[in-house]
Amino acid sequence: MNYQNDEEILQAICYTAQFISDLMPLDCMVSVTDTEKFLAYHPGQKIDVKAQVGAPIPAEDIIKAVLQSGQKIVAEVPKQAYGFPFKGIVTAVKNIKGEVIGSFNLGIDLSTQVELTQIAQQLAASFEQISSSTQELAAGAQELSSSQHELLSVSNNAHKNLKRTDQILNLIKDVSAQTKLLGLNAAIEAARAGEAGRGFHVVAEEIRKLSDRTAQSVKDINEILSKLNEQVLQVSEYVNKTQHISDNQAAASQEISASVEENAAMAENLVEIAQIL
């Protein structure tokens, strides 16, 4: 479409400006100026700098800089200026000769971006803390798994050592049986010796009593060691079970740590995206 003069160009832009806010996903305000004054102004639902159609362009406004340079300027206006933060985009309007005849201005509300950035930063900080905690948990689970391996090894060695006591008890049992047999033979020989063997008979009787006590002690020790062996076997079973649990916990902790690190990276990306909006 060919426009006859500068006024037609500016009027066309003024007419179009009223529809811009409907196309924007964020709250925005739109204004159009010539080289001296505002020709159109459409505030947003929240964002409104109270510009007036027909009012002159303030000398300190960046619109003046755009009109002079003909270059687009994008600037962020802090909340302190108007009560809300917004991004101002000002571009020069040029005629068919390339001459600057006005400006087209868009102000985009940054309240959502600021809130999103804060949430993303809090989320990133939380994930960083969780990541550190899960790494410590994973290290602890790994150390626990290693300790469980050592405990299982100790339990197995204890079971082997208990098995070796069976040989010692059998040896003591054999010695006790031989001692009792010797005492019995000594008693027989003492009886044959009559009065002369009475003292030897007393010794023989004591040897048999000692043998009986030894045999009973071996029996008691054997029962104790048998119960101890059962308990060691139970400990081994529990250690095996906890070892399996500990290994799974270590693996799960590592997976959780990896997932948290990924989420932390995503949170950092979210911060960057929020700043781009």
TrEMBL record:
Any single biological process term in GO: signal transduction
Q: What is this protein called?
A: Methyl-accepting chemotaxis protein
InterPro entries, alphabetized: MCPsignal_dom, Sensor-like_sf
The Methyl-accepting transducer domain extends over 115-277
- Protein's organism: Desulforamulus aquiferis
- SMART domains reported in the protein's UniProt record: MA
Cellular component annotations (GO), alphabetically ordered:
membrane
Instruction: Name the domain of life this protein comes from.
Output: Bacteria
Keywords associated with the record: Transducer
